Amino acid sequence: MAHQTETKAKAGAAIIPVTPFQQNCTLLWCEVTRKAVVIDPGGDVPQILAAIQQAKVAVEQIWLTHGHIDHVGGAAELRDALKILIRGPHRDDKYLLDNVEMSGRSFGMTGVRNFAPDHWLDEGEQARIGELSFDIFHCPGHSPGSVVFFHSEMRFAHVGDVLFNGSVGRTDLPGGSHATLIKSITEKLLPLGDDVSFICGHGPGSTFGQERMTNPFLTGAM
């Protein structure tokens, strides 16, 4: 069941947990235009399509925070079903998108396909849907090409697996680096402000301020 929220009436969002990893595939839309984007369609595409229909929005793009299988496994299928473009992640995750099928076999996920996005994302760019514009931050560490989407006016971010409520992304996978990840969080995300709320790739969201004060990976307790 998709969980719907609104952010100051400018945007709406529905979180659709997908795959055995319970990844937070996010349907995000502009309330003014009802144009929408699907962020990280990791799988269970029929479930995602049903959430789109329920929300009565027009999905125009797919955005990817990074290339791990639980975030991209359904991207090619959803792209073909809706005839839309894929944007992101950063090109440093190309090796992951080139090996989606192999990764899928490792986790027993069938029907996934290797693919390339229509546009790689770089820091300093913006991603737009309807009247909403999100700044792109390249935040490596969990994966080399992880990106974060940030809307300054709404004080909202989608951080993928960079940061979690009470934790951070795992760094024991190929291309991961704990030191790099912590640097991405402390130098790029936390300076955006304690009041910024975020949706992450798994589990409940939080705020940057809450994580700065209580997250053991950021306070030095871990």
Task: Describe the fold and architecture.
With 222 residues, this protein is of the alpha+beta class. The protein has one domain (3-219): Ribonuclease Z/Hydroxyacylglutathione hydrolase-like (Metallo-beta-lactamase, Chain A). The protein contains eight helices and 14 strands. The chain has helices spanning 45-55, 69-72, 75-82, 94-97, 100-106, 178-189, 208-214, 216-219; strands at 3-7, 11-18, 23-30, 35-39, 58-63, 85-87, 126-129, 132-138, 147-151, 156-158, 163-164, 167-168, 197-199, 206-207. It is globular, with a radius of gyration of 16 Å. The relative contact order is 0.14.
Defining traits:
alpha+beta, 222 residues, 6-stranded mixed beta sheet, single chain, 8 helices, 14 strands
List low-confidence stretches. none
How many angstroms does the end-to-end distance come to? 34 Å
> Per DSSP, what share of the residues sits in E-state strands of 2 or more residues?
25-35%
Number of structural domains: 1
List the helices and strands and how they pair.
Blueprint: E1 3-7, E2 11-18, E3 23-30, E4 35-39, H1 45-55, E5 58-63, H2 69-72, H3 75-82, E6 85-87, H4 94-97, H5 100-106, E7 126-129, E8 132-138, E9 147-151, E10 156-158, E11 163-164, E12 167-168, H6 178-189, E13 197-199, E14 206-207, H7 208-214, H8 216-219
